[in-house]
UniProtKB/TrEMBL annotation:
Membrane-spanning residues: none
Entry protein name: ABC transporter ATP-binding protein
GO molecular function: ATP binding
Pfam family, any one: ABC_tran
Record's keyword terms, sorted: ATP-binding, Nucleotide-binding, Transport
């Protein structure tokens, strides 16, 4: 498989008052197109920082990040926003849905940045909701849906623009075990059947088993890479 994400000598530091905090230290990593990668490690290991850098939500202090041949570490803020909207879908632990909008309107939100007509936006949202198993819930607001259903809406919103890369930050962290397994099976289906490359931060070893690879970080460095059983 071809390389989708190529990271070389990646560094990230934060300034907290007079103190400089080193989060990532010269990290090297390649992620192939079609991979489903689980990022694991103790709190403070740099998992979420790495995820945010891959997804273009933050910029590195040093090193380079290339996604689909594009050096995103060289992009200015406005260029990075444009790149994210066309290439990355985001799924967060707490769904981040607009409470006053229906499921369908929540899914349509990323499409407001496109030139699609309102009818085409609606159709694309319906297709995405059907893909995540919520064809009959489009008119429901988040408060009328279970946590697992809300996360399905969030996944539909993440894939409605057909991004190359899905970035998932603890997507099952707020769900019961059954709902978590349903969400993980859905992500696995999107990876296997729809060729979505997924990078997921998780603390849950059972969640990591759904991925094709598990990467362990500790103190800002990659300490282990494991290819999971098929």
């Amino acid at each position: 498989m071809s390389t989708l994400v190529s990271i070389k000598n990646l560094h990230k530091t934060y300034q907290r008052g007079p103190e400089t905090v080193d989060v990532l230290h010269g990290l090297d990593l390649d992620i192939a197109k079609g991979d489903f990668v689980a990022l694991m490690g103790p709190s403070g290991s740099g998992k979420t920082t790495l995820l945010n850098l891959i997804g273009g939500l933050d910029s590195p202090t040093g090193g380079q990040i290339e996604v689909s041949g594009q050096r995103i570490d060289q992009l200015r803020s406005g260029q990075l926003s444009h790149w994210r909207s066309h290439n990355v879908g985001f799924v967060f632990q707490f769904y981040n849905l607009m409470p006053t909008l229906t499921a369908q309107k929540n899914v349509e939100l990323p499409l407001l940045l496109t030139n699609l007509s309102s009818a085409q936006r609606r159709r694309n949202a319906e297709i995405a909701l059907e893909l995540v198993g919520l064809k009959d819930r489009g008119k429901h607001r988040p408060s009328e849906l279970s946590g697992g259903q809300q996360q399905r809406v969030a996944i539909a919103r993440a894939i409605v623009s057909d991004p190359t890369l899905l970035i998932c930050d603890e997507p099952t962290g707020d769900l019961d075990r059954q709902s978590a397994e349903e969400i993980l099976s859905l992500l696995q289906m999107l990876n296997r059947d729809h060729d979505k490359t997924i990078v997921m931060v998780t603390h849950d070893p059972k969640a990591a088993e759904y991925a094709t690879h598990t990467l362990h970080l500790d103190k800002g460095t990659l300490v282990e890479q494991v290819r999971n059983a098929a």
